[in-house]
Amino acid sequence: MSLVLRARRAAPRPARWRTLATVADTPAFKIPLIDFSRFLEARSAQEKRETAQEIVSGFKDVGFIYLDKHGIPDATVKNAFAKSAEFFSLPAETKDKLRWADPRSNRGYVAIGRERVTQSADPAEIAALRAAAPDCKETMEIGREGDAWANQWPDEADAPRFRATMLDFAATCHALHVHVMRAVALGLGLEERFFDGRVDQRCHNLRLLSYPPIRTDLLRKEGQARAGAHSDYGTLTLLFQDSVGGLEVQNPHTKEYQPAPPIPGSIVINAGDLLARWSNDVLRSTLHRVVAPPAKKVSETEGITPHRQSIAFFCNPNFDAVIECLPNCGSQPKYEPVTTEEYIVGRLAVTYT
Fold it and tell me: Rounded to an integer, what distance in angstroms lies between the CA atom of residue 178 and that of residue 49?
């Protein structure tokens, strides 16, 4: 599969950014929708720089953007969703044979309730949170091929073309990630290909997510959510949502959560912890969570939420990359240098049982 992304150039818009409504009666907190064809098919260096600056401004102000005209065909995304749904429909005993086993590999199937995402790094605190209010989702984690830590693939007879589809989709997402990181470099005043040699080993994680229907009474417990409040670990996360929704982003000024509903054809992209550390917090790694969308009423006192699917592509620097304060991001580093592997493995080790 070619990794060259071709975006369909949109007709000129009256305004460069289309934005979602802000949280009522709070300081402006807008998630910009950015036409990425203006970067991929820029008619001039100035147009490319302008789009790069818009992306960086979104990551500075909010930590999240919507990327439109990004070059990944709708049919490619729909096929990945279809194969994901086929996988999660397999019998539990078939999926359990592929169970996630080690934070160094971060590969395999994670059953409902096994993960509890949180900002805490205290294993005892996370264990207590998991026992009281586990995340109501199941996932499948896929990394690059050829590592000592092998991917856990279902048999081809159980899930036809699942492996091929997900490897192709991961390659497509990696290509887009490289282009967005080039935009980040330009927007920070660095050479456009500054990150190329630091993200070229494809140390990413493709996560398929399935949020099953759940009774609303189970979501009323304190701290309960489909996925608890957290930031992501790497450089960027590319999030593909279905039409159900449920993603919420925290306004850092008010600490309120704002819905980030699906916009057809767009990808939600957020900056992660390592990009925030790299940029000395010039770019923002924002807390977010997944809550239940409106439930279907099944009795006078009870309802049930709809099933939700999403696909997240967690982009990471090379595992041996040293993350330290970038040029143009301040003279006083806020963080000690850390390698990608040290940071991510440390976070994963306390997140799962």
Answer: 16
**In which residue ranges of the chain is pLDDT below 70?**
1-28, 114-135, 215-227, 292-303, 351-353
What CA–CA distance (Å, rounded) separates 40 from 69?
A: 9
Q: Tally helices (H) and strands (E) across the chain.
A: 8, 17
Q: Which two three-digit tokens encode residue 129? A: 């949170």
Q: Which among 29, 88, 86 is positioned nearest to 257, based on CA atoms?
A: 29
CA distance 196 to 174: 11
Superfamily of the domain at 28-349:
B-lactam Antibiotic, Isopenicillin N Synthase; Chain (2.60.120.330)
Among 24, 17, 18, 19, residue whose Cα is nearest residue 257: 24
Distances (CA, A) of 117 to 158, 251, 341: 30, 19, 19
| CA–CA distances in Å: residue 284 to residues 11, 93, 241, 276, 295 | 31, 40, 22, 6, 32
